[in-house]
Amino acid sequence: MTIPTVFRRGALLALCLCATEALADARLEARRHFRNGMNLIEQKQFDEGIAELEEAYKIKPHPSVLYNIARAYQDAGRLAEALDAFKRYLASNPPDAASVQAQVTRLEATQQAASAEAPPPGTTPGTPGSNLPMPPPPPTSIQAQQQLATLMERLEKAVNRAESLTANAAPQPQAPANTPASNDADTSGGAQGDTSGDQGFVPYEERVVTASRRAQSSLEAPNATTVITSEDIRLSGATTLPELLRRVPGADVMALGVGSANVSLRGFNQRLSNKVLVLVDGRTEYQDFIGLTVWAGLPIGLEEIDRIEVIRGPGSALYGANAMLGVINIITQAPGTGRRARFSAMAGGGNTVQGSFVSHGQNGALRYRASAAYRQEDKWSRDYASGRPDFALRDEDPDLGTRGARGNLSTVYTFSEDRSVGLSGGVHRYNTEIYPLGLLRNYSMDALGAYAKGDVELGAVKLKAFWNHLSGTAGPQYEAIGQRSLVTNIASNVFNGEALYARGFELAGEHQVNIGVEGRLKRVAFGYLDGNLREEFHAAAFIQDEWRIVQPLRLVVSYRVDRHPLLDKGQPGIAQSPRLSAVFQPMEGHAFRASVATAFREPTFLESYTRLPVPVPGVNGVSVLTTGNRELRPERLNALELGWRGESPRLGLDWDVALYQNTVKDLIGLSPVQRLPAGESYDSGSGSYLVGRSLFTNENAIYTARGVEAGINLSPIDGLGIKASAAYQHVSSDLPEEGQCGPCSQAPGFRLFGGITYRTRKDLEFGVDAAFTTATTWVEREPAATDPTRVDLLANNLPAYTVVNARVGYDVVKDFASVALMGSQLGGGHSEHPFGNRIERRVFATLTVTP
């Protein structure tokens, strides 16, 4: 390292360490001040306690903090300050506005009464130590009291009306002392989208809605959960959603291109990863025709996300098929909760250009969020150089990795506290890469994605309906000259309707019951299928009961049944998904959980209906026939999990530990290539000779995945935030030779993540994180080197790698303009799959303006 480099790094470190008024992780730091303030207020140290609450609110505004400030002023007898704080709280349009307004009315009446009874200026009510009686009140005082009596009568009537409105509303769960009640309903996909993750009973408490389809503390969640906040996103330096997920314990993120990634949880990752359900505000982004989440095709950007909730473990008991290993729910900002306008621009390496605009607004009971964005970025590397005599490039731009333009509009109209209607929709025109299975390699997809969604909330009943659309062309980016082209057209439409009923009651303890029904129609036209159009109708019903037997113990019982048109040997059949969880909270801030659950993944259209002759690379006129199988069984998982989640607000500390065992059977994959009889060895449709056939089938092997995960969030001192996680897993099978066990060798044994953030209240932000993954061996189908017409399973070794991202941000004009410098993939060149791009480092600059 040269001396100038040392000086530059030393100067940057000194700048960070000398910056004043530093903040660590905002939520943890604010929560620490809030808890300290509440403890001081309980000890009647009102001034010191209120100062702590004000500091918490300054770090991260939260309406409930204002409420507690108002209560503290009221208990201290300082009515003027209490009224001011209550009015600031009401300005946030809280759900308990009617009851708080009634309280404000009482305080104003008390304040007016005190003013009316006070002696006129310049008079002396009596002489201290004198035995003389007080003089009678003057006539003006009697008149004032009569006026006050009339005023009080009118105020009491107003208060009664306000309280009657509150009483007629749907009953709310009991909130902790000094904290206003809030709606506890499912907001994962409700009419209001979702409120901030902190809008719960306790300010700055981490809340999740995905684990039980209702808002609850992460301590109460029956699954291992990880929450990535908007603040985490902004400070991370990540430019894509999959990059953010590397910080999740147990998450296996495999980037094959700048717009192509595969994400799994607790093993079993692959090309076309299909065992994790990805939702955006409760609407699925799983592409049913092929079994893939097209991350580059999501209709939202990082700047629109409020938080990401990751459920690590089976979720089929609530979400049905494809939530086999977990659920990733991307929750966007609720309409009307952000800035009126926000412009962002980014440019950097790889010819990267990105611009976005997000706007929030409100007109009476109507709130909206509108957004538009454009992005493009070149590949990290190319598969083939230009000008080769044996391969032809199909795309016009051989370097383009991803490009897209999108627009969204989300609205919600609120009739009352628990009655609202939401409508949202968006469109995304994009080009990206995908990596299919088998002999197929890098595909380019030029597509149009669109969606429309409606939500209705009627107290305990919630209705949701959505439509997902995808159409376009897809095919290999490079094709051998002289071979038949595999370019094809795709058109997919999914129509979904759902009804959810939630109710709480008491019977030998407290119960919270959720009951739901769902129907889904899938229509797919895909050139690789054995027909122009395929249509399937799916139905499901589920029930969940959260039963608090005694105060520290809760049982969560869930059961779901799904109807699939092919599950019973090609005929309609059902899949059942029960789950039983116990959550034990023996003391504040600690929760121990145990669960046993099952989950499943249903066959995709590709696996059920495919008929595709795949050309053998390097041999013109020769193909391998790939066919679907309508008698496939669903992939099944049986899971056991033990966990411990804890928090220490005084130390600014959160942690989570999980131990699990997953038993997986009936995995769906391609069979070995089987030679065909001479009479079946010619395919007239493709005009090629068929060397054999491979069909989708259920494997006989049973796989067992065992692992342990641990994560910690720490803000030990002002100015420092630390996040760290570690995951160990081992996948085995009952196969006699584990050398050919793909899921065993493809699962990384260890994954480590560490991140540090440094924030100052004035101008400067700094963040750096690193994710380490151990070496793996990928078993893939490839033509044999000695005989290209023979397809073998070959082992491909992949060395360990480290992904490093960093960001430095600066507020040029406070609350108006900020700039940032971000480094992506700073750990050096590497590949995350044998067929993927060689990933290289890139640096980006961003500008954000919020007029």
UniProtKB/TrEMBL annotation:
Entry annotated with the keyword Signal: yes
TonB-dependent receptor plug domain sequence ranges: 220-327
Similarity field: Belongs to the TonB-dependent receptor family.
Name by which UniProt lists this protein: TonB-dependent receptor
PROSITE patterns, per database record: TONB_DEPENDENT_REC_3, TPR
Annotated keywords: Cell outer membrane, Membrane, Receptor, Signal, TonB box, TPR repeat, Transmembrane, Transmembrane beta strand, Transport
One Gene Ontology term of the molecular function aspect: actin binding
TPR repeats: 63-96
Region of interest (Disordered), ranges: 108-145, 167-201
UniProt feature, compositional bias: Low complexity: 167-181
Gene Ontology CC terms, in alphabetical order: cell outer membrane
Xref: SUPFAM superfamilies: Porins, TPR-like
Domain TonB-dependent receptor-like beta-barrel, chain residue ranges per copy: 368-818
Annotated signal sequence range: 1-24
CDD domains in the record: ligand_gated_channel
Subcellular localization(s) per the UniProt record: Cell outer membrane
Membrane topology: Multi-pass membrane protein
InterPro entries linked to this entry: Adenylate_cyclase-assoc_CAP_N, Beta-barrel_TonB, Beta-barrel_TonB_sf, Plug_dom, Plug_dom_sf, TonB-dep_rcpt-like, TPR-like_helical_dom_sf, TPR_rpt
Superkingdom of the organism of origin: Bacteria
One GO biological process term: cytoskeleton organization
